[in-house]
Design goal:
heterodimer; A: 243 residues; alpha/beta; 8 helices; 10 strands; disordered N terminus; B: alpha+beta; 2 domains; 10 helices
Chain lengths: 243, 303
Amino acid sequence: MAYDVEKDAGRKIDAPVIMFENVSKSYQKNMPALKNVSFEIRKGEFVFIVGASGSGKSTLIKLITREIKANKGKVFINGRDIGRLFRGKIARYRRGIGVVFQDFRLLPDLNVYENVAFAQRVIEAPAKEIPNRVAKALAIVGLSDKQKSFPDQLSGGEQQRVAVARALINNPTLLLADEPTGNLDPSNTREIMKLLEEVNRRGTTVVVVTHNREMVNSMQKRVIKMDRGQIVSDASKGGYRYV
Amino acid sequence: MFKITTLGYNLKQGIKTLFKSKGYSLAAVATMTACIFMFGIFYFVITNLQNMMENAEKTVGITVFFNDNLTYDRIVEIGDEIKSDVRVLKIEYKSAEETWAEYKEKYLSPELAETFGNDNPLENSASYTVYTTNVDYQSSVTAAIRNIEGVRQVNSAESLTETLQSINRGVTYVSFALILLLLAIATFLISITISMGVSAHREEISIMKLIGATDYFVRGPYIVEGLFIGVIGSIIPIVLLRLSYDKLTQVITERFSSSFEMLTFLPASTLFKALIPLSLLIGIGISFLGSYLTLNRELRRID
């Protein structure tokens, strides 16, 4: 059974899925990665977070997945201040978030089916329900016929689809994609973005971190632009232009 | 709480990891084998030495002599009084005649003995030999017997028993120190093995944690791997020790029993009844502790 973030947060239906309140984070003294960042992302939104390398995008994602903690300010996910999560509760919290990475991060020794099923094993889902759920997730990403293939037998686009299926199988309320098309050609990029739009249409909030201008400009979604650890613009149906 | 499927997964993954990192696993099994083997050797030495000491202590008695012309009835009364002490295991009476006969046989030539005719120069040498339940009671029992009326002299071998006791203590302390040292080394090496295993799977573990795996779930296969190392590393030395014990004791007995009277060995069945569960417990305990503590430390680094 997937972790119900909203239930855990006390059913704060109106609360934003993501809310940053004056968040700052430094890895080294006097070198802030994030400076006093505040923003909200509501349920069902599709948001791009853009910016050059070192602008603070990855730090933002790591704060949401609770790989790191803010030095100042608060991060609320579905109404819950995740800075106050006990270490033992982090794993269960993460089950409500699907994550997709630029380098796919599939387990090379497992085939497509096993990679997706692995996400279910990890949350100790009932064994007899796993095959059915994996089949559904693979159908959504269009890889039902590649179940037995291993990652090194797949194209980059196909590997990213497997990663999306793995991120979706636990029914997350939030899908984070960190440069999901960074290693893909334009055709595969379009396919993956279509897939993420489909996931968003099904009700999942989607946050995509990228610096692919063409893709951002073509999709006309909300765009939060970051520069040197700060939000410099936040526009619905925005674009990503050279300054 | 683990589900049955998770337990099955952990077992499968644990065995897989064991074979995947063959080099580390072999090194850890070899270390554990060496440590348990050494432990077994020390266990043999301590247990057999203690047994020999106990046997030797049992032969060390207190000799009690009586006043001149004491009646036999009074001697019996003294014997009853000594026997009533709970610290006394048994007493043996030796009459003056028996003492003289023994002396003649041991120290005099038949010709010289004959010159004494029916005279008994040791006629006041009837005695009791008193054995205590524990060699530690020798001095207090000796003092108590000295206070009994009719007792002329009490001889105890306190210096001999003290020597035996100090040898026994020394061997025990040194062996325990060495065993502790070996166990610490084994724990350290198991910890290194598991650390290397975790480093090799750092990427996999970070993925597991990002998709919501609890530390218990991540730890499972490594704990299983550690337990396998512990079990295999305990069984091998037990088998080796069992195969060599009889041969070894036989060789030592043949070579040295003429020089050391008290050289006797416990039967293998007695020793291994305790050594087998003890070795398994130590092997499994060390590998569990080593892997658990290491994983706790390593998993905190991969958040």
